Amino acid sequence: MLVVTGRDEAERGEADAMGELVDDEMMHARSRAVDMHSVMQFDMHMTRRVAIVNYTGGYVGPSLTRALAREHDLVVGDPAPGLVDELESLGAAVEAVQNVADLSDPDASPRLVGAALERFGRVDATAMFGGGMRPAKCGSGVNTFAPFVESSIEDLRVHLAECVEAPYNFLQEILPVMLKQGSGQILISTSAFGARPVPGSSLYSTARAAGTMLMRNVAAEVVDKGVQVNSIGPMWLDGPENLASFNGDRARMEAEVPMGRLAQMDELAHLAMSFLDGKSTFVTGHFVPFAGGWA
User: Keyword annotations for this protein (predicted)?
Assistant: First the structure.
């Protein structure tokens, strides 16, 4: 027969109470761990920079946003399929905005910047891509490669809209935000075509040069406001859009490049990052050709 004494009951009661106390402490510890994880996640995204890239459906957009995603939350325009999931897997919070690739559309820039402010409350870096060479018989009917005497005023207007009005619209929208913050980095992609005369492409070259000069003037106006504005001039990039300008003839295109090869998108992304990642803020008003020695 098992005899239970008062002392045994007391000890068992103490053990039960101790067990309940341990259980409570474990529950509180788990709760604190969950809360700390939530705080860490919140702090991580509060301390991450925020960047806008207006076109990520192709060109250098995917490569650039992958590089940015490690330290930036992102607003991406017209992303390629699967890109948002990929960027989120790299640690970025991502806001996608559709139908904003053409910044000559006056509604595109407000939608991009508005999405960034609504989701993240600030913008630290922006990369703007727009315009482009137009081979003969393209959809718009405008030909980049044509003698000046065969051009029309409509040809000029199309190039100016894409190469000057687009960055104008974007700068008008983003600059007040960054001036209010007292900080920010803006990168405008123009073209190496704007760095030298290009016979047979006078309208496009002129429009690109105008876009570059717009950037330099804006940079000079805000040089003491904590905002940097710079431009890169890509040319001879390996991609279907550029090869189309040479009817897909890679060898003929490579023959135009002093380095004898075409540039890769990751190379352009690395150059762009030096103007966007917040690590070098003593450079403004600069145009850097990315053209394999051509400009």
Answer: Oxidoreductase
Could you tell me the strand order of the sheet in which 49-53 lies?
94-97, 72-77, 49-53, 125-128, 184-189, 227-234, 287-290
The DSSP code for 238 is: -
pLDDT tens across 75-122, in order? Answer: 999 999 999 999 999 999 999 999 999 999 999 999 999 999 999 999
Q: What is the dihedral of CA 147, 148, 153, 157, to 10 degrees?
A: 80
Closest CA to 103 of 211, 243, 204: 211
In a domain, 17, yes or no: no
The answer to whether residues 199 and 185 touch, using CB atoms and an 8 Å cutoff, is no
Q: Find the length of the chain.
A: 295
SS3 label, residue 259: coil
Return the closest-CA partner of residue 65 out of 230, 227, 277: 277
Please state, as a whole number, how many other Cβ atoms lie within 10 Å of the Cβ of residue 286: 15
Round to whole Å and give the CA distance between 275 and 286. 10
The residue range of the domain holding 219 is 50-133+159-290
In a domain, 76, yes or no: yes
**With 70 as the cut, is the pLDDT of residue 269 above it?**
yes
Report how far apart, in Å, the C-alpha atoms of 71 and of each of 87, 129, 220 are.
Answer: 11, 21, 28
pLDDT of residue 242: 83
Query: What is the rounded CA–CA span in Å between residue 11 and residue 13?
Result: 5
Q: How far apart are CA 99 and CA 209, in angstroms?
A: 26
d(CA 86, CA 62): 10
